[in-house]
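Question: what's this shape?

___
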Amino acid sequence: MSKADAPPLVGAPLVDSHCHVVFADFQDDLDTVAQRWREQGVCALVHACVTPEEIPAIRQLADRFPELRYAVGLHPLETGCWHEAMPNLFLEACHRDERVVAVGELGLDLYKATNLKQQVRALEAQLDVAWEVDLPVIIHCRQAAVLLRDILVARRQAGRPVRGVMHCWAGTPQEMDWFLDLGLIISFSGIVTFKNAKAVHACAQQVPEDRYMVETDCPFLAPTPHRGQRNEPAFVVRVAETMAALRHCSTERVRHVSSQTAARLFGLESLLQGSLTAMGEQFSRTPP
């Protein structure tokens, strides 16, 4: 997408609440990609972590792009490499850098993997890390909603409730209600722009206004009309626009409320406030 093709910048700053710009897909043009996300008013990005080996490179990206915050963790599809030293590694990373704002992405994936016992072990250990450092978690869940719900309910009953986000939501309204009842945020990705994603459309319409965020999960799941291309943070605008259409409100309102939710969850208030101050806006202003 060239600058000439970019939609006009609107007032409210926007948060891409989940991205992977450390991937090799961005190796050759990340500065140009950053220029595009800034042109679209993306004032903050939360970078997820797939394996601990990524952490030094993500930290370097946070040095390079001051609007970037990040998580540390192990993706469920990478849990074949889980070992008992990892929790201490994640704890050390959290204590080392205040730009670590979450643990994850962690979770369960029974669509592409069958090592359930190992996935649960890694999940529980990482949830313990998040509890110890008082950070939210970024949860990946694919074809495992019932089991994940039961694990989170058990933790709440044990006095260790989980706070965080169900990222890249692709479930049903009923499943969404389970996780909302557990206090979690629902994050919508490019999937919400797909014509046949009817269950996700219903979730986007029904989710409470203060309980959703928007994300790209780039370089994956580029939204329509970019589907099939490399995804990038600037495209989070398309997710916000589709959410607005589904919720019968202005895109400006979706940008505002989703970003405020991300700010509360991940502690991004200073980034949003700085962006709004630069535009002469008030952080508390809510568009219609």
The chain has one domain: 18-279.
